[in-house]
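S1.2 Input.
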Amino acid sequence: MHLPTRSRASAAALAAALLVALSPAPAQGAARPYAAIDLGTLGGATSAAFAMNDAGQVVGISQTAAGQAHAFLWSAGRMTDLGTLPGGTYSVAVDINAGGLVVGNASDAAGVQHAVAWDRGRIIDLGHLGGGDGSVVAVNDRGQEEHAFRWHDGVMQDLGTLGGPGSRATAINDRGAVVGFAAVADQVNRPFLWRAGVMTDLTGRGLTADDDLSDINDRGELAGTRSGRAMLFR
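S1.3 Output.
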């Protein structure tokens, strides 16, 4: 079963995750107990949850009875198969926003991976940039998705690079700012911030080339990893 990555260091953590349900909020300072709820599968043996919204809807990937890996949406106690592109055999859902818009990846009949979105159960092919595979790793509450591109209102916008051959986005906030890592001319990846059409190399701006950014909030604060330690950049 293929599994998506949210950043270079997080694939194993994502693949191992199965959701625990939210319990009523405890008194301040108290340790909150959790009740584990098995969300089930799409007929196969395994499933994994990758994201949820504040309404408690969960998305991820599950093995089907036919042995394929399909994206799912779990809502109100029911797991729904989100399907694939026509002729495809693989899909995965990696994020869901407050409005229930789901994003992820799906294969076509030729086995090529496309970035996709599911809007009220309808799959939308977001394509890919310049051939090869496409992928989405996050969506904000305004419905903007990204992975070396930002997709909004049906338009795919290439975020570019820092002068090298490629880039990868890892998170987007509700203001449309994107973080990730991109190659410079020597093909070394460096952390970037993309905002208002400009990609900025954050190396030397309080970050190093080895810093791995995983998220950005609406205040512009960054979360990530440096030398095996969780970091907050503010």
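S1.4 Remarks. The chain is about 5% helix and 45% strand.
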